[in-house]
UniProtKB/TrEMBL annotation:
It comes from the Bacteria. Residues 1-22 have a biased composition (Gly residues). Residues 1-27, 137-160, 209-229 are annotated as: Disordered. Residues 220-229 have a biased composition (Basic and acidic residues). It comes from Streptomyces violaceolatus. The lineage of its organism: Bacteria, Bacillati, Actinomycetota, Actinomycetes, Kitasatosporales. This is DUF5682 family protein.
Amino acid sequence: MTGTDRAGGGGPGGQGGAGEPGGRPLLLGVRHHGPGSARAVRAALEATRPGVVLIEGPPEADALIPLAADEDMRPPVALLAHAVDEPGRSAFWPLAEFSPEWVAVRWALEHDVPARFIDLPAAHTLAWRAADGHGDVDADARGDDQAPPGRPGTAPADVRRDPLAALAAAAGHDDPERWWEDVIEHRGRGAGDALAPFTALEEAMTALRETEEDGEAEGGEDREGGDGDVRDLVREAHMRLQVRSARREFAEGVAVVCGAWHVPALRRRATVAADRALLKGLPRTKVDMTWVPWTHRRLSRAGGYGAGIESPGWYGHLFAAVDRPVERWLTKVAGLLRAEDRIVSPAHVIEATRLAETLAVIRGRPLPGLTEATDAVRAVMCDGSDVPLALVHDRLVVGDVLGEVPAGAPAVPLQRDLTRAQRRLRLRPEAPVRELELDLRKETDAGRSRLLHRLRLLGVGWGEAVASRSTGTFREAWRLRWEPELSVRVAEAGVWGTTVLSAATARAQADAVTARGLAEVTALAERCLLAELPDALAPVMRILADRAALDTDVGHLAQALPALVRSLRYGDVRGTDTGALAEVAEGLAERVFVGLPAACAALDADAAEEMRRHVDAVHTAVGLLGDAPAPGRGDLHSRWRAVLHTLSARDTVPGVVRGRAVRLLLDDGELAPDEAARLMGLVLSPATPPADAAAWIEGFVGGGSGGGMLLLHDERLLALVDAWLTGVPADAFTHVLPLLRRTFSAYEPGVRRGLGELVRRGPEARGSVTTAGSGVPGFAAGLDPVRADAVLPVVRLLLGRHPAPDDGDLAGANT
């Protein structure tokens, strides 16, 4: 073929015979991920029997095509390309069972016909993106459904975004796929008309491209040379060269399956020299390619890695249904609603079918579509409510179908190790959200916990830790959901190692070196224990000790201590040696004890509230440290109590911190109730500024510390607060009101109602602050044994003790 050879010939009319030697290529323009297009492609290939099938897609994936015939390959799947030196720079080419490209690949494999991808190589695509300053290719990498940069609202840009949508809109249809079904699929489907839809579509696309070119000419410099337009020209030039090459090689004929937008360009006369000139000097990078599982939910997203399909579940149903698609669909909907305990009978299905067919007739459509089916479901099965209809849309119209790829598909070593671990631990990746409760005393559950924590260290967010129903340290709860882009994260993490263990260890060591603060290092130490990374824990602990020795900020030390103490408990659960952690934790605690009183002086309101949170965290951490037997650790409690006494008595300490210190001492039994009442009385005296008194109350009974119940059951304290509040001057009341509202609004409704009832009774009914509420209904000076014994049956039921035990047994059970 000489340099003046042409890509095609003639006008956009007849396709020519695919089996004619030297004949024009059979150009099958499609709408990506359209079931109508997929069926039309299969019919055209069956009718013409070409010698080779060329498909829009990255040529690097040609070696992966045979895997599509593997029995373990189940769409939706995607071709994944990523740069070898930067795995995070990647692109996906999603394919569903109803994608025309997938149908073309499968037809070629079933008929022993060569199949090739002819789009611009991924090596150029990824390098081009990098040159533009982009990372991941953030959409379906074909680009046929994406608009180029241009002026918003211009007709050509809208045409370019989805050419079939432009044709549908011109015909008065709002759904491009429904237009394709109505106009092409449901009209004139005779055996001899297999190529007629593509001939008509090529004519329409030719007219649309001429419209866009006219629009570009009118737009002037605003649109000339747009990045998306240039890329289309380059891609189409590469495809034309590949078509020429295939025509020379295969005399039986060439079939090309590509986006309908590109058909006129592939038919256009262009010289080989001109096409090669467009490809000259393109940036290039080394890439790896593989198949990865995809999901219907990802297909439904227009942004990110999605393909912009609104109803993949419906499309899959249309493609798979051999007959009566509407009736079968409504039967699926009825089954889903019945599973959710809604009353749906066969009569509902029959009536909904009739309504859908009637709506189609009224709307001038040859068959009911998703719009008619949805309207019928809403009216007949959902009683006009959109609430159950949202469930139908989520579960069926979109769906959580997750594809599968065979074990023989190329993958980075880290991915292979992860796959082996998933199989060993029976932790299958799934598209729907899955709640997982783990008992760490069981080896399988402990292994699952290690794997999920290691993946989180590597940035592979398959699992999210959530609050467990159990408060014990032997339990963990996770929320799992496998997203397709996690395959990219796994490939990206492959730079750290070939196994999950080695990669997580290397990543933890590197993160410890680059950590910016002490709290980050302590959190990393905690994650290393959770993930059971002993080789990473030692260097992390060395860095932690060095950082702790140099950091003099009490706030930083207080932030770091809780994570260390939690790590000690995790180590106990997992049988890990935590001696080094204990030493660092004790050292941090000692430095906090020494520096905290001085650090609490001269703080503004925001800093005081933050310090109050630090005091809470340290108090909890010291309590946990005391639970773990170790030499010298028992004195921590007494030293911490001394710090709290110091904080409670210093006037230079903010009120919110002083109030919290008193409350913590009271809760631990280190402060008598009378003494707590005395301190509150002093703070709420007229000599104390109202704002400082309100802050003290916030520290004492606020912050989610159960202060409402304390006031509810200790009426001396409630009387003090009530008497102080009623005596606040009017000019100061507006300043303390916001703080008090924040304090008391955090209480549960029942507690607020109880406090309101006590206040409504008034001081006389409640009694004086010295009588502890004597004479008030429900309170007495001493214990009432009869009323106390009344709870025993309920306690026995909660403890599972059906025979009535004696008092000693019950006391032992409570202990």
